[in-house]
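Quick one, T. Sequence first:
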Amino acid sequence: MEEVFDSEAFRLRYDGETNACVFTMKTYGVRDDFRTPVMHAIEIIRKHNSKHLIIEDSCEGLPDIKEDDLKWMKKVVLPKLQETSCEHIFFVVGDELAGTDCSEVPYSLFAEKFKTDKVVSEQFALMMIKNNCGAEVSSDIVSMTREQALEYLGLPANANDFMIDEKFWKLSKNIRGDNTPEGKQKIADLSAAYDIATGRRDERVHKAEQREQARKIFGKTGDEWRTYFSYTWYKYLILILVLILGGNLIYTIATRQGYDCGYVSIGHFSNDTDFVEKYLTTRLGFRNPMVSTVDIVVPNDQGQTQQAYADQTATTLMLSTPNVLVFDEVTMPYYFGSLQDVTSLYSFLRENLTEEQFSQLTPVYMSERTAREILNDYEINYGAEMSVVDDDMSIYDDNPIMVGIKLKNEEAIAALGYQNLWPEYDDSLVFCIYNQTMDINDSEIIIMQLLREVL
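Structure tokens:
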């Protein structure tokens, strides 16, 4: 059985004969052209209980993967791959690099968790998998030195990696397909001798001995801690910023008593809050309104470096139980769980706005199931830390409810002080009511009066 998924960016194939997943990169650059097929490959491995993954970099871009994608691989791909049955990863690198170690990034990320090999071709990797028949290696082979393994293969002591690979290929062809106990034993012994002759066995043993003898701090060696911090230092910096800035925000909310309404904007936009603040006080009579804006990108594919702080700020602002939440159309679905059904608001607007004003508003519907599917996709493609992929969608309600009122009038949006920061999306605002609002009547009046003012 074979499954093939082919596009301009990648080719993904499940090889039924070897129960292996073969992933060929054709291009590299666009996020979805790289991350989506990687996650698809993991799903194929999970589906078929595969032990082997073959990665062929036909675009010669694997060593030049961008820093954010390397972090994503370490944070998302490796943990998910470890949850599968995968044990062995082959990197197809051509003649020059075949047989060399996997000490450099990105190969080293996988070498820390899986058995890895650099091979000359996909066919060579498949042949090695076929030769791994599961028979116990003979004791005299296990105890061989590298020189003895070379002699066993019929090679001189100074044989290079290319000569070893070529000899292994030729010898294995003669016994491949022999399913007798004797044939399986020969294949197992030949594969073990090849592993010793290439020096990989001794290298693994040497690294294990070095690690065993090295001084450890909380279970990690100095090199392991350096590697760990080289990929995670930014998290601690962000954590410090979150603690300082988030703490200040919580302190402000806790100590500044008497907010009589709240208006919070969350999305990828900037907002001059002067208009809304002045309108709430001078026109609607609120004495101490809280008006705040968070520039946030969900999912974060715009290179936002303060995303963790933005997430924390948005969460903290929710603690003030605002009346009104304003999102852009892209961001709103990720906050479904915080939104009130606004069917009554929509009716209220129909009764109190002119026909022309009301015609520029569009109700936004979403079901609990759709919202859960969006969060699942976010977790799979972007590694959201707080989300958990849920495969059973039947437990979620599929009936859509009205969760927002959408405004796309550019002049009205600008009058409210918003400037869209999405390069690929048109201006939009979605007015929602927080499901723990201070006062739903105030919420409806604030939204209605602001829309009446700018439309």
